[in-house]
Design a protein that fits this description.
Layout (H helix, E strand, L loop, with lengths): L19 H21 L2 H5 L4 H17 L9 H6 L1 H21 L1 H36 L4 H34 L25 E3 L2 E2 H31 L5 H20 L3 H28 L2 H6 L6 H4 L2 H28 L4 H4 L13 H25 L9 H4 L4
Antiparallel strand pairs: 1-2
């Protein structure tokens, strides 16, 4: 393929869906700071139990908080709430029923199922953000070209989209496979033993020359892991060269960051603190960014404000400080109380060092199996609902007619 003559050079910001500064602040720099922190902190901290300040920052404010941020894209969004009444009602109900059944059968079974759902959700977010960046390439390549050339470029972009998905699954799949073949480990998703160990057989079966089935799998996966990253990077550099557009740095940072972050957090460090830092920050802060970008643009939409009779709110919503506060305060308030109830009813004062400074514990953790499973299910509904709703929220379908506009795709 050859770029059309006279193709206008696109500005670099056209390939950042929230703007270069926004994307760097929410999607890239926090992850890079995680890596820098892990190089600087002493090994004793990496191997120790997570300190209370680490739990407040990583778990309470980011991990639990980003779950509650979903309400701004769902229950607190009048347009979305009206259009998607069915899933907004049935998903929490089904999540509660399923969680209660699993927790009543076994705590371990409940956490194992939830861990695999969470793993899938985290992988899908990596691809979801990649797809949003890929949408920017469509705009850059289709501008000002005829139908015949547009069709050629569409086929090229569809090829890139296919390799985006393949490479994201390779980038995340290799570390997960390594994890499953090196159990038990110090890290876990929710609790020790939540991942199955049946892949450990690969280390037991020898195939000769001192090599096991696992060794052969490692050689194959490392080769594919490195080759896929290099090939994917070349494909995007070649696209910029062929079509006279800027290099899509935002997309490159995100995908290459996925390769590095999942390797560092799962394979390189066997540390609960390192895993929590790389896993939660690389997932939670970008999610905050996505929800806030959509929500603020929705708040500032004059047509929407008029339709919902919110003119009196318009002067306040136009102020960034007010919109940030309106977004952050409810999220942190709900996160604080959810974790307190987990600590009070299920975990048994596990984080009393934090909550004891604010609140009393009027009762002991629930022991009765029936009621304990009830509270586990009830308190897990926000998290489980978030996992399933995300399969609908970030796709440009009739359920989300405003998604492209509020994320800046036209």
């Amino acid at each position: 393929m050859v770029a059309a003559s006279g193709q206008r050079k696109k500005t670099s910001t056209s390939l950042w869906f929230g703007g270069r500064g926004f994307d760097l602040s929410f999607f890239h720099v926090p992850i890079w700071l995680c890596w820098l922190s892990l190089l600087l902190v002493p090994n004793s901290l990496l191997q120790a139990k997570m300190p209370i300040w680490g739990w407040v920052l990583i778990v309470l404010l980011i991990d639990v908080g980003h779950v509650w941020a979903t309400i701004f894209r769902t229950y607190l969004d009048p347009e979305h709430r009206e259009r998607n009444k069915d899933i907004l009602f049935w998903i929490p109900v089904l999540c509660f029923a399923g969680a209660w059944s699993l927790a009543y059968l076994s705590d371990d079974l409940f956490w194992r199922v939830l861990a695999y759902i969470a793993l899938y959700h985290f992988i899908k977010q990596q691809y979801g953000v990649t797809a949003l960046y890929h949408g920017r390439l469509y705009g850059a390549l289709f501008a000002g070209v005829g139908d015949e050339e547009r069709e050629k470029r569409r086929r090229w972009l569809d090829r890139i989209k296919f390799w985006d998905k393949v490479c994201i699954y390779i980038a995340t799949g290799f570390p997960v496979l390594y994890w499953h073949t090196h159990l038990p480990r110090k890290i876990s998703w929710f609790s020790q033993g939540d991942f199955v160990s049946w892949l450990m057989w690969s280390q037991q079966i020898q195939v000769g020359l001192g090599q096991s089935v696992y060794d052969l799998l490692v050689y194959a996966f490392v080769t594919v892991w490195v080759a896929s990253a290099m090939g994917w990077l070349w494909l995007h550099l070649r696209t910029a060269q062929l079509y006279g557009i800027d290099i899509p740095w935002g997309k490159i940072f995100w995908v290459c960051g996925t390769y590095l972050n999942w390797y560092i957090g799962i394979v390189h460090f066997d540390s609960p603190f390192a895993f929590a830092l790389t896993n939660v920050i690389a997932h939670g802060i970008p999610y905050y960014g996505l929800v806030y970008l959509y929500t603020e643009n929705a708040w500032r939409d004059p047509e929407r404000i008029q339709r919902l009779a919110m003119q009196s709110w318009q002067p306040y919503l136009a102020r960034r400080v007010f919109s940030v506060a309106l977004f952050a305060v409810p999220v942190l308030f709900l996160s604080f109380w959810e974790e307190y109830l987990w600590d009070l009813l299920v975990h048994g004062r596990e984080h009393m060092a934090f909550y004891g400074a604010f609140l009393r514990y009027p009762m002991a953790a629930v022991k009765d199996p029936y009621w304990r499973s009830f509270w586990i299910a009830m308190l897990s509904v926000p998290q489980a609902t978030h996992y399933f709703l995300d399969g609908f929220l970030w796709k440009a379908t009739p359920r989300n007619p405003s998604l492209k506009r509020y994320l800046g795709f036209g």
